[in-house]
Amino acid sequence: MVNTTGRDETAAVLGAGITGLTAAYFLQQYGYSPLVIERDNQVGGLAKTVNYNGFRFDLGGHRFLTSNADLERFVKNLLNHRYLVVNRTSNIYLNNRYIKYPLQPWNAFRHVGYRQSLTFLSDYILQKCKSNRDNVRSLEEWVVQRFGRSLYEVFFKGYSEKVWGLDCTQIDSDWIAQRIQNLNLAKAIKSAISKRTSKHYATLTDKFLYPTDGIGSITDNLRTRIDASNVKLEAEVQRISHNNHRITSIDYVQQGQRYRTAPEHIISTIPLSVMVKRLDPQPPTHIVGAANKLRSRDLVLVTLMVNRPQVSNDSWVYFPEKEVPFGRIHEPRNWSERMAPKGKTAVVTEHFCFRGDTTWSASNEQLVQRTVDSLCKLGFIQPDELIDAVVLRIANAYPLFEIGYREHCETVCGYLSQFENLNLAGRTGAFRYYNMDHAMLSGIEAVEQLAGEKIPLAQYGHANEEINSRPNAIHGESNEMCPDYSGVAP
Ligand SMILES: Cc1cc2nc3c(=O)[nH]c(=O)nc-3n(C[C@H](O)[C@H](O)[C@H](O)COP(=O)(O)OP(=O)(O)OC[C@H]3O[C@@H](n4cnc5c(N)ncnc54)[C@H](O)[C@@H]3O)c2cc1C
């Protein structure tokens, strides 16, 4: 299915994350010559897998999950069926106890006791009586309205504020509304009673697809299907020149050398605010001002290599409490045994932060020490089991949906829409809270806009159909379907 349309136009794709590479793959299929420009020394962006002395880990465990069957088949086919179906078993650590995540009403009620459960229910009923959905703007209002104030305070507030670094009254409800859609306490209880109804909610997910060698296999496989000489690594976009509502050239620096390309089309997946600042001539001051207000939440990842086969059997463990320096941990070998050398494991800890704050600026030694101390205190590891540690700082991990972001986003995107040969796509590129599937679909949509036709994605999932019959390993123990109504986890 290569080059069917015989186009011979050039296109530049800025960024080789999962959006950029998906776009480049389909551009090539549609006869364009895509040039991919990526700052990092490997492809994948946020969805890459790091290989550190035989320990493999994602930048925070990435599960692949989609409701688009064609996309799922495309990804499975891309992976040549080297993937697992992993059962999700996660816990929240709260008040020295573990509680199942996603929250299951009975489990949550048991955890807090009879009195507190009654308060949850009465708060919820009270809220239902005075509910006015039109005025909901913040995350706090959204959750309180659907679950009642006391349940919000016990289960939602702490973790949300740890993830976002903002008070829940300052976080736009868009973020949570996208994630848990139409759910409220009554529906959650109903679905817990009648498990069959739980499949109606998009977030009720207890299994996910995971490549045997880590999530980065998706982009690694995309890369092998793109003309290798067209993927420029360690190449940073520095200037995006424009004239008369057209992008005229892109300047990038690769290993100290400056290059210029003048493509007919551009798909940008690099962070929106970075993209705006690279424009030459500079956009009007109010556009740059709006772009500057689109902030991101950043991440420090501290990964500890441990001389033990396993420290827990969870997919993730969440830590809402402030005293614990990280918000979430996962153990890659629980997702695929190939992620760690035999008899050893790694614990990946996510420390949410802002660039330049005390977490971001702490030395690697301090970060490792803090993490080791905390994991020892929590009983996950012993100090003498530590083999090695690695610290990574990840900028632009989460688009920050502060109240007011919508207006800034519209201002910036409205301005950029004037450029007739520019498409924005992806999570950082379009400032959208996309997971990988939506990021890929946004890359496909950008190509459809250039090509002026719909891509028949279903056809791309069938090329290796004969290997479909291979049994997939089912990893871990079977899990019950449960509503993801806490929805606070990124
Ligand atoms: C901790 C964490 C956990 C997640 N878990 C999941 C999950 O379980 N499931 C899921 O589906 N999604 C998950 N996601 C979301 C997922 O990572 C993203 O949706 C997806 O990777 C976004 O891809 P992208 O290509 O749009 O953006 P990015 O991956 O950010 O790609 C942008 C690329 O542009 C490059 N770039 C930036 N500036 C320049 C420049 N000046 N010049 C050249 N290149 C540049 C960057 O290096 C990067 O490679 C998670 C995200 C995080 C942070």
User: Approximately how much helix is present in the residues?
Assistant: 25-40%
Tally of alpha and pi helices: 16
**Oligomeric form of this entry?**
single chain
The overall pLDDT, averaged over residues, is: 87
Taking the sheet with the most strands, its summary is: 7 strands, mixed
What CATH architecture label of one domain applies? Answer: 3-Layer(bba) Sandwich
Shape: globular
What small molecules does the structure contain? flavin-adenine dinucleotide
Features:
alpha/beta, seven-stranded mixed β-sheet, 16 helices, disordered C terminus, Polyamine Oxidase, Chain A, domain 2, single chain
Descriptive notes:
- The protein has 490 residues and is α/β, with parallel strands linked by helices.
- Among the domains are: 10-46 and 214-294 and 403-455, FAD/NAD(P)-binding domain; 296-399, Polyamine Oxidase, Chain A, domain 2 (Alpha-Beta Complex), CATH 3.90.660.10.
- The chain is 33% helix and 23% strand.
- It contains 16 helices and 21 strands.
- The protein has helices at 18-29, 69-78, 105-112, 114-130, 139-147, 149-164, 174-180, 185-193, 216-224, 272-277, 285-292, 358-361, 364-377, 405-416, 427-430, 436-451, and strands spanning 10-14, 33-37, 49-52, 55-58, 83-87, 90-94, 97-101, 207-211, 231-232, 235-243, 246-254, 257-261, 265-268, 279-280, 296-306, 316-318, 328-330, 345-353, 386-399, 422-424, 474-475.
- The strands form five sheets. The chain has a seven-stranded mixed beta sheet. A five-stranded parallel beta sheet has the order 9-2-1-13-20, with helices on one face. Strands 12-11-10-14 form a four-stranded mixed beta sheet.
- α4 packs across α5 and α5 (139-147) runs antiparallel to α6.
- The longest helix is centred in the N-terminal third of the chain and has 17 residues, at 114-130.
- The two termini are 36 Å apart.
- 45% of the residues are buried.
- Mean pLDDT is 87; it is low at 198-204 and 464-490.
- Flavin-adenine dinucleotide binds next to α1, β10, β19, α15 and α16.
